[in-house]
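Hmm, how's this folded?
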Amino acid sequence: MKTWIIAAETGVGTLADQARELGGTVTAVTVGNLPIAGVDETIAIELEATAPAEVAAPSVAAAIDAEPGDVVLAPNRPAERVLAGAVAAKLGAPVLTSVKSLQAGSAQVSKAGGISLDNVTFDGTVVAILDGGVQPAGEVPEAVTFGAKDYTATISAIEQAEVESVNLGSAERVVAAGRGFKEQDDLQLASDLAEAIGGEVACSRPLSEGLGWMQRDQYVGVSGQVIAPELYFAIGISGQVHHTAGILESGTIVAINNDETATMFEDSDYGIVGDLYEVIPQIVAALNE
């Protein structure tokens, strides 16, 4: 058995760890000059500086010479999803998304944003999309260059919004804000708590898709991010199933809400009934002592 990892960016530590658990050799197929540690070998596909990673789809598909029983892993990022699709099409292999656990010949995947889990078995090659995680540790093998068979495309212009991208999937601590916050400026309270615990700020769906107070990649829930941090604060969040399905595998969940009947308390390890405008400053002050 052999495990392949597709990488167009660094940050595939979770995939490298998963590949090791599956056993056999691990080969990373990288687009651009990427040093990937924690693998046995690297096949590098050169990329023009002005070209998007997606143009390398034919080369990635040609480089991955997978056999029945092999597993191809790709991080859940836009470019790598495109590359993984090209590999799956070439191999005639199924693509598994929302993978919770993976073994040789079987996988457990979440359905409906985590509301249910299904066990999937397979005999041939399979392509699995997982969270990438941090940069893996270990030695970086010398790369073998693969002859390019890319599409022709260049990036002619970049319009960069003044927002900061958040990788909630690799965050160990998350502070999520809900409709309990009255004004957008009040979200600074959530940021203060996140800074105090060394975490990231997230939100429930209304703050992202309804009010536009926070970015789409900060929304946690069925159709948003499904995460499992060590510590999760749910502040001013009612706790409807479309939100809680995205956090059920978190280590410790703390709910803060002024409504003692809020459903969020049912899925929490600790609950604080109180005004978030009073509770959060007290917690931050205690943490900073």
